[in-house]
Please model this.
Amino acid sequence: MKMKNTQSFFNRFKKCALINALFLAICTIAVLSCGDEDQVVTTLDELVWFDEFNITGAPNSDRWSFEIGTGVDGWGNNELQYYTDSSTNIEVRRVSEDDGQLIMTARKEVYEGSGYTSARIITKQKFEQQYGRFEARMRLPYGKGMWPAFWMLGADIDVNEWPGAGEIDIMEYRGQEPTIVHGSVHGPGYSGGEAITKSYQLTNDRFDTGFHVFGIEWGPEYINYYVDDVLYNQITPADVTGEWVFDKPFFLLINLAVGGSFVGSPNAETVFPQSMLIDYVRVYK
Amino acid sequence: MTTMRNKKYKNIIVVLIVGVIATIISSCERTASDEALPATYSTTAEIFTDNFVGLGTDFYFPYLGAKPDVFSVDTDEAYDSEASIRIDVPNANDPTGNFAGAIFRIDGSGRNLTGFDALTFWAKASQAVTVNEFGFGQDFNGDALRVVLPLVDLTTQWRKYTIPIPDPSLLVVERGMFQFAAGGIGVPGEEVGYTFWVDELKFEKLGTIAQSRPAIFSGEDRVEETFLNASFNAANITQTFNLASGINQTVIPSPFYFNFISSDPAIASVNELGEVSILGVGTAKVTAQIAGVQAKGSLTVNVMGEFDAADAPPEREAGDVISVFSNAYTNVSNLNFAIFNDANLQVEVIDFGGNQVVEYNNLSFVGLGWDGTVDVSAMTHLHLDVQVSASTSPFLNVELIDFGPDNADNGAGVVGDDTAGGASTAGSQLEVGSWVGIDIPINSFTQATGGGGSGSPNLNNVARIIFVSNGSSVIIDNIYFYKQ
Model:
């Protein structure tokens, strides 16, 4: 029931965009009625948690915690960077009078035995939620070895070791493939290289030249993945090759990794520093 | 969420209302006459699909010296169509031309390419080869907006190639649709020809040509101590884009794509070709942009004043002098100021009102070479004029390499019948900011050389002069052998 509603939301959104392109003036009226309709039928439109990144400086500590260092084996992925809380790696900056962005920057610099620095923030124990619509508007970096991600982990991960706790990757991207993003789930029996993944490729556009919205709509027994107004994948218990572990609270993570098993190391052509821009993170229920 | 939406739509309505008002206002104004409207040019994308598209009849113009009849339309080979462009690269010994190269220029008015961001085509070759260059924008009428993709690897399979447009907004009316240049494969002078095919040749709006990274001066920030009336060129200009494939594609654009800027045009003026003229004393920095993107690399000039030329060499009988580099005498052919050198060397030939000098910055070693060899056995001295421009304790050693009776370079170091020897010049002789004339007796090149020569070389087939220093910067002029 909820699933149907969710999909029809996308269908209408797309239609509107099309009409918009064809008959701008007429569509203005049409869009208005579209918006009203959405309000009636869409169930995941109540904003419950957000960060618009409008206050300059470090990210709001009521919402986010830093993860510092290299974790175990480069956060389990042989990543090459050292995560810091330095303003040279992570900072909210004003971009206009009433809008700011979170800027995560990967730098090529030797620090604490690593060859690169970058940043990673999480909402663990600050915001955790079961089901809902989770989205972020981001502009991604580019170049071999850049690995940004907007993702979630099961909130019970301290007592339920990964992959048992579950992982929902709302967006992953390889800097050497600037037109492609990936949405995945990891769980017991389907983790790492065996994760359930689908990729989405932009036509005549790329992810490092402008902002795009990456999101999921997550409910009992489904996770829908979308980029902008395009729903590109739905994962259900029938798709996973193990236990479905997505009926419990998860927390959010955003990070910009350098190197690691998913992307390979940067090469001589990779331009540093590289920044990822995050305009907002919004969560609805 | 609902509130936010409504806000957005209100904005759209405001924009529309403003638009309507603007239309009403503008309709009250006088309209432009027909003559004032810009001419519209074809925006056709395709150059060749199954055949040539809109190029007219007389569109194929080979380069000077190229074999003229290398081009045909091949109906047996094609990518996703009925025909392709076929280029038969000639053998080096082909009497009608030893390479393939031509432009395809519209026989008629040019196209408006401002809506595209790349020239693309599919290509393959009869064997794996590297084609010297593909490009567009060459019209044999100034070539103002020429773009070259150098050293393109073709395979025996059809592959797609992308040549990004450095700044499409400039291509308002362009006749040069495509160009290529390719020599054969193998030992220089004995290259063997091959065939390559090009298909689906067209301009495209890919939307994925991104991360513009223009560069001048090889992306280096160059600093030059120089003098009034000197001139420089914005050398090694490139434009790099990241493609959808993740590949960084570097093209060589015409300087016209760049907007060159001098921090002080009264000291260093720069024109649209990137030619820098030194006009005043002081410091100025030359930078450049493409479509608002700052190019990596710059030239900073510290202009010290008038340049005093070295004393003009005396007039000599033709048989009494063998000149390598002097405006006073007839020189060897095709002098190369750095036929080999250490990696940090910067070489600049500077023209002061018709008299050229060569400046070596960060000089550790450099070899000068030219066509053929010279017999200096009848000469008594090697002369050069040297001015140290920067060094605390300069020294300059000079070495000669003789290629021996076979007249051939027998490889790195001194091997075969090659011989070499060096001579020191007294460091105390050299002076910062002043010319010093150095005359080295021809029989005093007795020292062992850095390249393995044991000293006292033969003098009948001299092919190289080598300067060795300690990272000093020197200006050199009037390099010649003479008989006293």
Summary: The interface with chain A takes residues 1-2, 5-6, 9, 12-13, 16, 205-208, 210-211, 213, 242, 244, 246, 248 of chain B (CB under 8 Å).
